[in-house]
Amino acid sequence: MTPQKFIQLLRKEVSTYKSFLETDSQDWIVKGFIDIDKNIYTITNDLKVVSKRK
Question: How high is the pLDDT of residue 5?
Fold first, then answer.
């Protein structure tokens, strides 16, 4: 898979989440993450999220 194809597929996937994660004024509804130890991590404007599946 080329980097361009990956970006295209990623943008398509993320666009499906917009209606769940943003208000009509494009503010985020999600304000943070809670881990399995119940630690709360807030989301900043420049946050990059990386996930790992087991």
Answer: 95
